[in-house]
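Ligand: glycylglycylglycine. Inputs:
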Amino acid sequence: MTKKTIAVLPGDGIGPEVTRAAIKVLENIADLHDHEFVFQEGLIGGSAIDEKGAPLPHETKELSALSDGILLGAVGGPKWDHLPGGNRPEKGLLEIRKSLDLYANLRPVKAYASLIESSPLKEEIVADVDFLIVRELTGGLYFGEPKMREENEGEMQAVDTLVYKTSEIKRIAERAFQSARLRKGKVVSVDKANVLESSRLWREIVDDVRGGYPDVELEHMLVDNAAMQLIAQPASFDVIVTENTFGDILSDEASMLTGSLGLLPSASMGSTGVGLYEPVHGSAPDIAGENRANPLAAIASAAMMLKYGFEMEKEAERIEAAIEKVLADGYRTADIASKSEEAVTTAEMTDAVVKALE
Ligand code: GGG
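Predicted complex:
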């Protein structure tokens, strides 16, 4: 029997609903494979601000650092939109990534065969979509200093800074090349090197790192072109490595190739050995508490925790196969249901996945 402690940070909006779904699936996998998963809940985001006055209370930080893996839901919502940047729900997410040095955010984008025909794009374009976005997660525009507002010549101005050190680019590039070796062997590095100095350094370092991976193909692509190619020929991508903000935007765009943002999982890995696993989607406050959210991204994130965090490959594959099965059997939450299809609830989709595990 393998025992693992999992920190569960449901967060805001639909976060609690989708993490509950992921826990249910993990409990069933634990029974089926004779593991023991101990779930310990912590506060993050807006709910943490409401209860503790801070988006990442120190108890949550401690709980997370001592766990074997962190399962997170989503943070944010209009209730906290008026707060200053330093105390918004999203600050909790950024702080936990930084405090655990979770610099590599892996976002797989794969078209499920049974959803291809309902894609808004042509079938031949999305049919073979299967790539991995490696988003740098603890640097770039999200974290660069100075980040502030100030008076300048009688008016307010706001400053964000895009800064990268060589070491930060080097380690994320290493991750991308290592990932490509396990896939189709092709990295596209996305930047804005025709305009940004940080992107010119990014290119140089990625080229240097590539020297250690002569078996991996490398192409540099400007981010505006990458945004277009993701729609024009998405199946040509294998691994995309990019800056924090570019990765955030491109992965939301890429989610539409699969049919819904509600399908995309992620794993954030770093130097401490504790990984954080969360759906790519946000808190969707408009449907929070309505039992309508798609739980598959959270469930697939739990599968990534088993695979990348706990070396439980078989168990992860069992969850992935169950997700494929329920979609093939026609289960559709509202985000992926066509006009003629009846949508199932979050709980019904979760129960269908649990049943498909058997
Ligand atoms: N589960 C992802 C989530 O809560 N997203 C909200 C958000 O603001 N995310 C910013 C980011 O992922 O960088």
